[in-house]
Design a protein that fits this description.
Elements lengths: L11 H11 L2 H7 L1 E4 L5 H9 L5 E3 L3 H12 L8 E4 L17 H5 L4 H17 L4 E2 L23 H16 L12 E5 L18 H17 L4 E4 L3 E2 L2 E2 L5 H10 L5 E4 L3 H7 L7 H11 L4 E2 L4 H11 L4 H18 L20 H13 L2 E5 L12 E5 L6 H5 L23 H11 L3 E5 L12 H9 L3 E7 L20 H9 L5 E6 L7 H6 L2 E4 L7 H9 L55 E8 L3 E2 L4 E10 L5 E11 L10 E10 L4 E9 L5 E2 L5 E2 L3 E8 L8 E7 L1
The structure holds beta-D-glucopyranose (BGC).
Beta-D-glucopyranose binds next to loops.
């Protein structure tokens, strides 16, 4: 008689139960272990598989993964390994794979469908490499711009983050997890990780559970609804309780209340962190017990957990039901993924043609075109006029692949490798501009001008000389890898090194000055905003940033990106997110403007759009209704374009203080020059919820302002009133 767990015709639940019954306690705890391939020797890695039945590895690629999988399949029960990888913007730790813009840049597209396709491409490339699981998407909110990981977020807004997260999860996981090219997604870092006080990474988030529910939970709730297979618990503490040990937010809120059926993996060595960083456990046994009780199912890279948990579970200190629940969740995902049915192992070379293939690169290019935001365009400087015959491209990020790529690619992980040569063709801003200029008989000169970090490394005079003979100057400035990522929180968001001096000197040449920003996150650039003739924000755009920017500069593409995050005038103005609370006396610092430099949702086009006829399908409704909001948008300019219509809501009177406005819907649509389109957005009234003082999610009766327009600024929005009865 064959085993039930090996029988494909049985249900996943039957197979999981059968396998669990056959497992020893050692094998169960083994399944809870995720081993970092780069942190152990090859021999140790093999022993984790053959002697302790480890459940998962991370950061293993290609032949190494295949080797370990073969070992796993030959153990007593033959439980396949699950391989995880940080494929957070394509399978980008693999040189040769398609590299997408960072999540922050992707979010500028406001295009859920293109982001879903990016997820699909990633899943195909990761699975072609024999791996099964990406630690993506990141659902942290980018609200304090000093935080080093802003580049990894979809921006500052819970609603936009939730919608884009659901799209990319759908892309990763496909129609069915068992499809050959589907992988597990991981919603991380659960929860409120970006909210470390002072923008400090992994530091305490001084917020209440009410605030967690109101602001930080909604995107994760959308991830659960999108059937995201795994969640990662975050590094930081919330009001003093580390999330790794936080039963309230993990076991109770996520698992019991939201009904999450997948498994939770800790973040990197988080169980040890309870001892050495957060000091809430004096030894590994206490840390292991707290981590399991809180609701973590898989332990990333704290290998000492194994012995401690085995001892405690043997003594009954950790109830075996908790261990069984964790292992059941892990096995469930392994079965659903099809690992027991032939998907565990890919033959070398199978499907590897998919990695970095033409079709995938085309998706990356399409998305990148929509990720660029036109922030300024005085006197229609862009697209470039036909009389331009000579362009000077200046600046430290003009021809700098590492800055352009940003974090989490093979150039940056596990250690920065600035000189590794990309296997796929990359367009830097310089090469992208040169390519299109050449076709038009325009000459291009280049000078680096200065360094980003080092003030002594500059040749401003040389740059000015290069610029002085040109018809226009394109300055490519911003930040660099050293200023973004984990351990790289910044107190000062001004342009670093001699970049400000470089720009001011270039301005004095008297030529039109176009600034391209290449940066991990919004910088404080009031001088640029005021003095540049045109500004393009590209963030970290991946393989095709230079090509897409050049297409915009020469008018081949009409920009359609909008900011998913607000820009400050100055770091001291932080936080500047648009959905802030009312009540601040004076509403501003006395020495700072009251508005952000650039607002959430903002972005220009070569054409202009006029909004009119805001209409609600009904003006009085109950909490279970859906109201259809419609508005006419007319393209008044000479270019066809894509516009993102944004719907905000303001709760006029509420029992707790609520934000001045909140995004609750959006739609990106193509509108031809001269055309008027009626755009309809459904607003489920349950989206108008608040979290009341007792932490209940309720829709309170009363009036709500429905605000529709091209960005979040008051002056941009048409208004109607909806009454909830
Ligand atoms: C990061 C996670 C990442 C993990 C594995 C951690 O340091 O916080 O985002 O998935 O490492 O690389």
């Amino acid at each position: 008689m064959g085993c039930i767990y090996k029988d494909k015709t049985r249900t996943v639940a039957e197979r999981v139960n059968d396998l669990l019954e056959r497992m020893t306690l050692e094998e169960k705890i083994g399944q809870m272990m995720q081993i970092s391939f780069t942190s152990v020797s090859r021999k140790e890695a093999e022993e984790w598989v053959t002697e302790r039945c480890a459940g998962s590895f991370l950061h293993t690629l290609g032949d190494d993964a295949r080797h370990l999988q073969k070992l796993a399949l030959s153990t007593r029960l033959g439980i396949p390994l699950l391989f995880g990888i940080d494929a957070v913007r394509g399978h980008a730790l693999h040189n040769g794979a398609t590299i997408f813009p960072t999540q922050l840049a992707m979010a500028c597209s406001w295009n859920p469908e293109l982001i879903r396709m990016a997820g699909r491409v990633t899943a195909r490339e990761v699975s072609a490499d024999g791996l099964h699981w990406t630690f993506s998407p990141i659902l942290c909110l980018g609200r304090d711009l000093r935080w080093g990981r802003i580049n990894e977020t979809f921006g500052e807004d819970p609603y936009l983050t939730g919608v884009l997260a659901a799209s990319i999860i759908q892309g990763y996981q496909g129609d069915s997890l068992s499809d050959a090219d589907s992988i597990l997604a991981c919603a991380k870092h659960y929860i409120a990780y970006g909210e470390g006080t002072g923008g400090r990474d992994a530091y305490d988030s001084q917020i209440s559970i009410r605030k967690v529910r109101e602001v930080f939970l909604p995107p994760f709730r959308k991830a659960v609804e999108a059937r995201c297979a795994t969640f990662m618990s975050s590094y930081q503490s919330i009001d003093g309780t580390p999330v790794t040990a936080n039963k309230k937010v993990l076991r109770k809120l996520l698992k019991d209340e939201l009904g999450f059926e997948g498994f939770v993996v800790t973040d990197w060595d988080n169980t040890l962190s309870l001892i050495v960083n957060q000091h809430v456990a004096g030894d590994m046994e206490t840390a292991a017990r707290k981590a399991v009780e809180a609701g973590n199912d898989m332990i990333m890279n704290t290998n000492a957990f194994y012995d401690a948990a085995l001892k405690l579970a043997g003594e009954g200190v950790i109830p075996v039901e908790l261990i069984d629940d964790a292992v059941r969740r892990i096995l469930k995902m392994k079965f659903e993924l099809g690992l027991f049915d032939g998907k565990a192992y890919t033959q070398p070379g199978t499907n590897t043609d998919a990695i970095g293939c033409e079709e995938h690169l085309a998706v990356a290019l399409d998305l990148t075109r929509e990720c660029i935001v036109l922030l300024e365009n005085r006197n229609n400087t862009l697209p470039l006029a036909e009389m331009v015959k000579k362009i000077a491209v200046i600046g430290p990020n003009a021809d700098n692949i590492q800055s352009q790529f940003g974090d989490w690619t093979f150039l940056s992980h596990p250690t920065p490798k600035p000189h590794e040569v990309p296997k796929l063709p990359v367009r830097t801003f310089l090469s992208g501009i040169m390519e299109l200029a050449e076709k038009r008989g325009i000459s291009v000169t280049y000078h680096r001008g200065c360094d980003i970090m080092n003030k002594d490394d500059e040749d401003i005079a040389g740059a000015v000389e290069c610029a002085s003979t040109a018809d226009v100057v394109i300055a490519v400035v911003g930040d660099c890898l050293e200023q973004n990522g984990e351990y790289k929180d910044r107190a000062d968001l001004a342009l670093s090194g001699s970049q400000q001096k470089l720009l001011e000197s270039l301005k004095q040449c008297g030529k039109p000055l176009i600034v391209i920003l290449v940066n991990g996150k919004p910088l404080a650039i009031p001088w640029v905003a005021k003095n540049a003739d045109a500004v393009l924000e590209t963030f970290n755009s991946g393989l095709f940033g230079g090509k897409a920017a050049a297409e915009i500069i020469f008018g081949e593409v009409n920009p359609s990106g909008k900011l998913p995050i607000s820009f400050p005038y100055h770091s001291g103005q932080l936080p500047v997110y648009y959905n802030h609370l009312p009540g601040w006396h004076g509403g501003r610092y006395m020495d700072m403007p009251e508005k952000p430099l650039y607002s959430f949702g903002y972005g220009l086009s070569f054409t202009s759009y006029e909004y009119s006829n805001l209409h609600l399908s009904h003006t009085a409704c109950s909490a279970d209704d859906t109201v259809t909001v419609s508005v006419d948008v007319t393209n008044k300019g000479p270019y066809d374009g894509k516009e993102t219509v944004q719907l905000y809501v303001k709760d006029v009177i509420s029992s707790v203080v609520t934000p001045v406005k909140q995004l609750k819907g959006f739609m990106k649509t193509e509108i031809k020059s001269g055309e008027t389109k009626t755009v309809k957005i459904d607003l489920p009234v349950r989206e108008l919820f608040i979290i009341d003082e007792n932490e209940n999610q309720v829709v309170e009766p009363g009036e709500f302002e429905i605000l529709v327009g091209p960005d979040s600024r008051d002056e941009s929005l048409l208004k109607a009133v909806l009454t909830v009865v």
